[in-house]
Amino acid sequence: MFKFVSMRLLQSIVVMLVVGLIAFGLFRFVGDPINNMVGQDTTLAEREALTESLGLNDPFLVQYGRFITKAVQGDFGMSYRLRQPVSGLIAERFPATLELSLISAFLALALGVPMGIYTALKPKSLFTRGFMTLSLMGVSLPTFLIGILLILFFGVTLRWLPTFGRGEVVDLGWWTTGFLTASGLKSLILPAITLAIFQMTLIVRLVRAEMLEVLRTDYIKFAHARGLSPRLINFSIALRNTLVPVITIIGLQVGSIIAFAIITESVFQWPGMGLLFIQAVSEVDIPVMAAYLLLIAFVFVVINLIVDILYFVVDPRLRVQS
Amino acid sequence: MSDISNERPSFITRFRESDLWWNFKGSPGAIIAAILTFLMIFGAAFANFVAPHNPFDLATVDLFDALLPPAWEGEGNASYLLGTDDQGRDVFSTILYGSRISLIVGFASVGLAAILGIAVGLISGYAGGVVDSILMRIADVQLSFPAILIALLIDGVARGIMPRETHDELAVYVLVVAIGLSFWVQYARTVRSSVMVERNKEYVQAGQVIGLPDWIILVRHILPNVMGPVLVIATIQLALAVITEATLSFLGVGVPPTSPSLGTLIRIGNDYLFSGEWWITIFPGAALVILVLSVNILGDWLRDALNPKLR
Amino acid sequence: EVFKWSFQGDVQSLDPHGLNETFTLGFLGNVYEGLTSYSSDLQIEPGLAVSWENTAPTTWVFKLREGVKFHDGGDFNADDVIFTWKRTLTSGSDMKGYGARISGIKKIDDHTIEVETPAPNPILPRELAFYYMMDKEWSEKHNSVEATSPKAADATATYAAQNANGTGPFILSERQPDVRSTFTRFTDYWKDIPTNVTEVQFTPISQGATRVAALISGELDMVYPVPVQDWNRLESAEGVKPLTGPEARTIFLGMDQWRDELLYSNIKGKNPFKDQRVRAAMAHAIDLNAIDEKIMRGAAVPAGLLLAPQINGFDEKFNTPYAYDPEKSKKLLAEAGYPDGFELGMDCPNNRYVNDEKICQAVVGLLARVGIKVDLNAQPKSKYFAKVSPQNGNDTSFYLLGWTPSSMDVHNVLYNLMSSFDVEKNTGQFNYGRYSNTRIDEIAGNVEKETDQAKRQDMVAEAFSILQKDVGYLPLHQQPLSWGVRDGVTLAQRADNVLDLRYVVVGK
Amino acid sequence: MSKTLLDIKNLIVEFPSRHGDVLAAKNVSLSVASGEILGVVGESGAGKSTIGNAVMGLLERPGRVGGGEVFLERDKISGLSQVEMRKIRGKRIGMIFQDPLTSLNPLETIAKQLIGTIQTHLGFSDADARERAISLLDQVGIPDPSQRVDHYPHQFSGGMRQRVVIALALCAEPEVILADEPTTALDVSIQAQILDLLRKLVREKGVGMIIITHDMGVIAEVADRVAVMYRGAVVETGPTKKILGNPDHPYSRSLISAVPRPDVRLHRFPMVESIEAAGERKELDLSTHWLGKARDFGKSDGPLLKVDNLEMVFKSGGMFGSSKSIVRAVDDVSFDIRNGECFGIVGESGSGKSTIARLVTSIYKSAGGSINFAGTDLTKIKRRKELNVHRRQMQMIFQDPFSSVNARMKVRDIIAEPIRFHKLTSSESETRQIVDDLLDHVGLGAKAAVKYPHEFSGGQRQRISIARALATRPRFLICDEPTSALDVSIQAQILNLLKDLQDELGLTMMFISHDLPVIRQMCDRVGVMSKGKMVEIADTEALFEAPKHEYSKHLISLMPSYTGLMNKDAEQAEAS
Ligand SMILES: Nc1ncnc2c1ncn2[C@@H]1O[C@H](COP(=O)(O)OP(=O)(O)OP(=O)(O)O)[C@@H](O)[C@H]1O
Ligand SMILES: Nc1ncnc2c1ncn2[C@@H]1O[C@H](COP(=O)(O)OP(=O)(O)OP(=O)(O)O)[C@@H](O)[C@H]1O
Ligand SMILES: [Mg+2]
Ligand SMILES: [Mg+2]
């Protein structure tokens, strides 16, 4: 186990290095950062000087090398856009994103899994059909549309919930949390729902599809023959047998919410990493993008590591290898 | 004693006799969904003939017709059934024309992602060990880049290689590749996870004992048994691909705004939600919902139909 | 009273010399002040200087205001002015251009200085409005004697980018970039100002719809910009209203007039835009009223000049747009040898100006009607500017741009847009199509130095008439200011789109 | 006479399908009283398992009860809702399913599955339930139960799983037990133990039991009455002695006559002259038949297979190789199989027989030793491609027929796959013809080709995998319990076919079975396994006449001779 995990963490370094390399290869396609960093009166010569001093004229491998050399010393540079150390910026944004992703993942799971089971058990019921249709509508409407509609209804018409931001946060020193204040919690609701809709639909459909197959297996039949309660059969035996693909998808989804909840975060002006990232992209904030992509690479390696470990926990048949 | 004929029946008769067709005939839901999907595809493919206007031909679009409500509303104009958008394009015609891009990009990119992802997932899950590690770390790298950046990269490289003129024809491919690349990991990892479970089952061992090469075992034996989640993801990602296309087009790597796709139309319409011009976004949105619904129903049906036990 | 407002983005830096950009400087104008300042209608009035005088063509004497305190309690005096001037010349500064307008400052006494300019400069006081004074002692204490460079290596070097200490009416009390900035009223402020606001909360909200929703739901008192199509909504919603007016920003189209063959066109071997008739044909093909009415909801002001009325040097005579006349346009095209029109690629930003992409689309449609088939390439501003800017060799054939002269003076337009592109002289930097007329170049040079207002205006008029005859640019309109405020809040809407908190009064 | 517990009246079960409805049970009436054991024998695919499922209300869709009634004591239980049925299942009627591998939840330990069931019905505390679970495993003869209880199903051998399934069915002390082939995968000594256990339950607790089996020895040993099923109908019911000794119905008669003799070796198994099917089941003339065309594998000297010091260990317990316990499944085993020989392996359930089969086919990698096949050491081959060259000469019939076929393929494709792949025919139509023919020879009929595996009974599935194995015309065939689920008549047909192939083509076989009479008829030499070791290898007759090793002696002594067992049963009945 120890060996397995440490091997993975070792691999994660390689992953991060590759991500960095590709990142620097593509930054020049994102646009020109200089234009956003200077006013319109700045002369061409000054612009050129700035470009030169930022090293943007160097070949990307040189830029990459410079970045990595500094990064291993813990220095990720300064944001072009916000004139702040990137590491501090990311640390500042991370709690907001993590809280939002976890809540929405939780929502998606807490609703998605039972609904998946229900719709598999009662595939013909009216409720199932209605629910499946509705959830698909939730998927096919773009996130920004859903977000705006939610804002319009709950924020503007009913005025129950805030339309933007994270509300009051409590600073715990190393972490800022919105869980401890009423306004923080209220602010979480709409973005979390917006994010959760897609995840939930995916989970419902996945669980349902897998359940439909598992419910037809002999061991479920034998479990029925032993007179076990439906709760035990459906939730413990059958559900567990559907878990491997479900865990996989959940892992990927949680990862991508943490990484790229871009649209939701910008619709709700949620001060998270997704917002930071999209703004970095639109202003070509290279240091932020670079550090951010490395972080995300690490997040994904860790999440996928956890997922792979969960496979072993869930399915003993997989334990023989490794 | 059985009806063995010497020739192999033609494809059509085989299809008509196949369980799939037989099953299809007995599922009204699937039939309706198939008809709707067909209508959408047909409408898109033959938009030139079906659509009352040609919204992509800007010489025929009149800015003064902009923002007309649907025909049945007070200020509506009978020649614009579903109203017009901010540029004076007929919404109905634009949906038809725009679906063309969206359908191509949607299906092609999801198809690309699925094929790539399934292949990687199968190999990775089956081979295990170093191969698995390498492929999955590549997947991790891929995951770290959102579609936006991939699109910018591909677009940039494509522009670098290709002459200026070809860029517009290229736009669709750039979109397909970019979206396909950013979606494949989902398939790869799910398929891999299922393959890891399946590969130890006896039917796989039986295939090995016959001496079948690995790829046949993978494609013919394991693949059908892991298709369930794949179909679910693919049908859902179709919607995502259409929307992603709109986002990428906004970033300037996709199709130009003068020939908007379904997704772009929804995105444009989004600007008019507050101002009361709901038809610009609602109708294309509804078209997308119908498409996604039908494809999902078809996907569900196919999944059940492919599983002999669920018939 | 608490005042909450929102803009679409946050300032990059709190360093008053970090970025020469209108929103940033306007935002910081509530914390920092210059020797002069803008009134709500963009007139120059005394700021930290009580008075000034042009004692010789290149010499100005400024009397500084006495008793002015910085937020940390330090006194404002001549040393601070000199310090500030030197600071703007350091490498990280983006105000070097302004700094260079001064060649030396002599301290006469603590509150009198003599400013030397390298050449006669009639608009120096105007150019000093955004030239914010910093406290020498504070800067030295915090190791911020140099302007923070975007290249800065560590957090200490960027102290001034994250902290502020000005003389303005508001003290920055808390700041989280991109999330929230809070200001409290500076009780020792030297001037009596209308505002009754004691605390200001600023939140950037990037999405227009969210911004509008937050205003309507009562969470904010004022937001901008409001998407123009949402005005109706604001008008019909209770308790809020749109606040509009023309902005000092002109939107226009430019054409590549220097290459011998257009980069993006089907015409090979020659450049149609070198022919004045083609440019004129373009001008007459574009229906500014239609764009105004349908795209801008009637809120834009169709323009004939690259210059808005609020700008010093504006001349109403020339502000009549080219007439919309597609027939004439076709005729001109035929005369020029393009009876069937031609194909053309167009570059357009899609997140820079009000409805920029939509305007471009409309232009494409209008040009299509006279046979010019335009291929639109709309991109976010970073990519757009990277493509069309001179650093990239002005890689465009036809583009849309908007311009507000930062000095609020016509010279800025002559210099940046109308003069020939010249790296040495730094002229024509935003003249992406490289329109060139030697007479205009000459005039631009003279206008800079001319201190006689009437003569100056004559020169300007000549330049305008040349440009108009040449059809060097295709001006579209003055972009509208589009603010949304809660009922009961009164404020001054400045044409440079700056919110000056001094004028904000929050009522019930 | 004790009271009737379960009474099945005129039960009709049908499986509608696209290719016509299958009537799996036609007016079946059966009953069992408290303290009674009813044996059900009959043709494979006759509908025996279907009846069990129908009684439990667990028929798989699209199957449905088309008529008839089922009573438990006096209550009608047919047509009850799922909620009401749940109260009956497990607690009042316990069912042992035919397929032990797929009946167990692969993700839970045996302990968890047992404890869950025990607690559902008996409300025990965790500790008590665990204790009972362990004692149940002990009763069904699982060695080291306290350790084994924490293992997962895939870590058990076929026979052990079967015993776990029995333990699960028994753990709530049901009033009626439906046992569907409960001992097929068990060696004679464990089988005797299980039968003892069941008999004790019936006699002491007054349980009523229906036991479905193909093993006449088992019937003779435990059943009070016997029902014979044929093509969905019960053709004859009567006391065991009468049915075994003097059956009335022609099918019953032919069935009894086909029981392989344990005592003497015959050249061929006696074939059933079954009434209706007589015309279909033609003898096969290998000299003209496709199967008779030998494939050219080249020649090799010496034994075809030579296994030396083979070792295999399974680690289990910890999650990442940090093994808690090690199972030595194969421990220093050496043997060889000559060209054209049929080598039998018998032995204790869980002694490593299937593991050897898997090692030989390179499904598992051995932990030591060598496997020489036709002169090549398979354990040394690294590349898959090379391995496949050798594998293609081998074939294996898996112990578990259902798991070893791909449930998503039609039977035709399953069987045709190796033919197509090895290009053994020249055209697709020939392939189809051969598949249909093969299906015919394993007694399924060509109609089976368009169906999917799950539409078949246990025995029928086993025949599918036999047909697939034969389709490659292998040089070396490994049979892991090939006929355990087959009724004696089909068994005879198939074993004769194998014998013919051996005679005509020199097919070499490794034949794993618990059925000693079959081993005696089939094999030339036999290896006896116990606890992972090959304890004795001898010529068949020598072994049966004079076993040397202790375990062999024990095994042979328990060989059922049903006449003898009947007497023992009679003695017991008299004693009680
Ligand atoms: N995958 C596995 N993991 C752990 N232990 C295993 C595994 N497979 C088999 N075993 C163990 O190896 C031993 C031998 O198993 P094997 O299946 O070879 O027995 P067998 O002789 O075929 O028995 P049976 O006649 O019951 O089928 C058993 O104790 C079993 O529990
Ligand atoms: N799901 C199904 N769909 C269609 N037909 C089925 C299905 N299950 C069983 N049958 C058919 O019903 C008949 C009876 O099957 P059943 O399993 O009861 O046989 P059995 O007597 O138990 O045979 P065996 O001794 O081989 O296990 C068989 O002919 C089989 O083909
Ligand atoms: Mg059966
Ligand atoms: Mg076995």
Description of the structure:
- The complex is a heterotetramer of chains A (about 325), B (about 300), C (about 500) and D (about 575).
- Chain A has about 325 residues and is mainly α.
- Chain A is about 75% helix and about 0% strand.
- Chain A is built from 13 helices and two strands, in the order H-H-H-H-H-H-H-E-E-H-H-H-H-H-H.
- In chain A, helix 5 runs antiparallel to helix 10 (about 230-260) and helix 8 (about 180-215) crosses helix 10.
- Chain A is globular, with a radius of gyration of 23 Å.
- Chain B is globular.
- Chain C has helices at about 20-30, 80-90, 95-100, 125, 135-140, 160, 210-215, 230-235, 275-285, 290-295, 325-335, 355-370, 380-390, 410-420, 440-450, 455-470; strands spanning about 1-5, 35-40, 45, 50-55, 60-65, 105-110, 110-115, 170-175, 180-185, 200-205, 220-225, 240-255, 300, 345-350, 375-380, 400-405, 475-485, 490, 505.
- The radius of gyration of chain C is 24 Å and the shape is globular.
- The mean pLDDT of chain C is about 90.
- The chains are: A mainly alpha (about 325), B mainly alpha (about 300), C alpha+beta (about 500), D alpha/beta (about 575).
- Chains in contact: A-B, A-C, A-D, B-C, B-D.
- Chains B and C meet through loops of B and helix 7, helix 8, helix 10, helix 12 and strand 15 of C.
- The structure holds adenosine-5'-triphosphate (2 copies) and magnesium ion (MG) (2 copies).
- Chain B: It comes from Kiloniella antarctica.
- Chain B: Its main location: membrane.
- Chain B: This is ABC transporter permease.
